[in-house]
Write a structure and sequence with these properties.
Layout: H1 3-17, H2 24-61, H3 75-83, E1 88-89, E2 95-97, E3 100-109, E4 113-122, E5 132-137, E6 141-144, E7 149-152, E8 165-168, E9 172-173, E10 178-186, E11 195-207, E12 211-223, H4 226-229, E13 234-240, E14 249-254, E15 259-263, E16 275-280, E17 283-286, E18 296-299, E19 302-309, E20 319-325, E21 330-337
Antiparallel strand pairs: 1-3, 2-3, 3-4, 4-10, 5-11, 6-7, 6-11, 8-10, 9-10, 11-12, 13-14, 13-21, 14-15, 15-19, 16-17, 16-20, 18-19, 20-21
Length: 338
Amino acid sequence: MNNNELDEFLKKSFKDDSCDSPFTDEIDNLMNGLYKKRKRRNKFLLAIPILLVSTTAFAVAYNTFNLSSVNIDSSSAIELAVQNGYIQHVDMEMQTFEGVGIKVERFLMDDINLDITFKYKVDNNTVNIDDIKDLSIQDIIIYDENNNIIHNSKNYSYENNLSKATGHTKVKKISNETFENTFFAQANNFPNSQKLYIEFETVNLNCKKATKKINGKWKFELDVPENMVNREEVSYKCTSGNNEGNIIVNEVKLTNTGLIVQIGPNSEELLNNIDIEVIANNKKYKANNNLYSDIENINSNKFKRTYSFNLTIYDEPNEIIIKIKNDKENKKIVFTRN
């Protein structure tokens, strides 16, 4: 294959892999510029488009819920679950109020993550879709068939909501009329719900010049698939190191979208400025900075905090090593799969 043939092959591969990426024109221009300079820096220049191809393909693959748009650390673990079939696509009609149609496109739920992607269709007489910079649902309530309150933004309290951290991703344009964004919630232990009910009445379209408030009565009912209701959960037992010092690991639980580690010392001070690291399959994992619980006071002598890591059941570790360090302790605790 000569240089010209290689150029065409790279450009064709990029276009095929990138799903009509907005960077296609830039790649064409780059390739043309590289061709002119090849005589001087032939080997180096050929490496650049190859790197761009592989990097773009990676970005496209890890974008199901668009969590990376708001720097959610656990997005790679969630996408690993999606690649293993742990996702539910929803077939439903849009519910339209004041020119804005909304429906649930897909969702995912396990013990620690709930991600719901909404699809929106906007009447151009209501607002120009290109003017929409962001979108937020103001009063969302999510509960299940047993009236477990997954999230209630109308009446939120840490004690009465199962979700401990929530938010929404940036809007992603799909067509000239439609776009998506994802509501995400994270917790320590979501229930094995068979149905999810979602209700809200206010959607704010944050446009370039002003915010447009849309009112309606959106109500959705989702059937949770069996693989999420009866989801697998892997527990581990401690085999060394947990009884040394004052910091104790109470729970190690591996789920479809992450690893939960709960630490319970006898002093709140011991949890401040703690450094925690997990080692599994010869790989190191840092705690996700977007999901760790507040320090909970169980009673006057016991406290706990929960951390999550981007390790899932699909990684299949037989052993998990937890390294904990703060100003007073430096310990290693070994857990083995039950």
